[in-house]
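I'll show an entry:

:::
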Amino acid sequence: MGILEECKITYELEQLTPMLHFQGKETGATVRASEMKPKLDRFLAEWYDKEMLEEWKLKKENDNKDDNKEEKLPAYHYKMSIIADERYFPGGYFGKVKPPYVVKHRTIKVTIICFIPELFKKIKDIFPTFIAVTNFGMRQRMGYGCFQVKGSDRESLMKSFVKEMNRPDILLYSIPYPDLSQRDVRVIIKKLNMIKDFHQHLKSGVNFMNRRYDPFYDKSILIKEYMNPKLGDNLNEKKAMKAALAQSEIYDISSLCNIHSEHAPSEESLKKVKLTNTNIRYIRGLLGFAGQYEFRQVYRHDDRNRNRHNGIVSFQLSSNEVKRFASPIIYFPAEEKIYLIVRGDYIKNIINRNPEIKMTHRKKRGSRNTEGKNQNGYVKKLTMCLPSDFDVCDFFKYVSKREVPCRARGIHNFSYRICNCMDEGSR
């Protein structure tokens, strides 16, 4: 065996779900080494002692200029290349083909070359685990771009990751599939639809009350069931936005009141809600910040052409302290079940930073100015913060004790029931 062969290893990866890729129409488009290597570098720094890896870190010309950047983005002495086999599309069920394009290969090969024996051994020890707990491409936290090393035991690798992190707020749960025919080419899109639907139930709720057939409304588990009883005199952000619209006297919000539950606030009660800079809690932000929020079928009182307008009113979210907070839940639609890794440490870090979050009414085109005013009134700008008493472990214990109705397209008569994979005897 040559010297180069002793320093090189090639892994064959099975691609379980499609990637969303902006260059997906190009030959050989797949997960890029420029995405995978930085993620593997960060994984190395998280798995091992950083001081142990310090001597193998690549030194950059700007190290002295930007020490913080180097700390956040370590890079180590090894090379990576990725080659994909012939592209495979699992049917035409992803809508129109436009950027980002859907890319799926049956297998890809990842080659790593490292001339430092100690570092090379550490990479080989953790690479299958790294692939088992990492997705790639756009919407990766929702299950897209999911791979596994061929022949590996995904659940065992994921359990070893949680044990190695040794933190009580890093959780591993699973959701069993209904009876899905493995011969059905739609099975992949059904799995991704399940992830989208379950996450909506957790975070924002599912609202299809306005459709003509089979209307339904499933409330948010996080907001309505778990956090609202803990708020006391404070408000969640959804109620605060409704109150801001009601008090502006610009919009008719009757469609938002008394349609889902007898306990829903009336328009008159919303007009009496006190909105301050200290009594609003951004509950949905615990599971990731959104760029904006929308209310549908909300029209201006002076709108005489409602049938011609979509009636969408939106609020824009911004924060000077935090530019982005991605979802702390990562979904992995494996062959046997859906796995969830919950990074409660990310939630704790963002809560400890206590960012001030602004929610501003986003005016439509043609509005007279940018301050939220118009001829009839003013939509108040909302200032919010995250709830400081959120316990991610307790929340998922609560979710695991109940059944969540499945509303995913193409799946009927099924309910989600999550299971803690780290409990003894769990399957």
Q: What stands out?
A: Residues 226 and 394 are 10 Å apart (CA to CA). The longest strand covers residues 8-15.
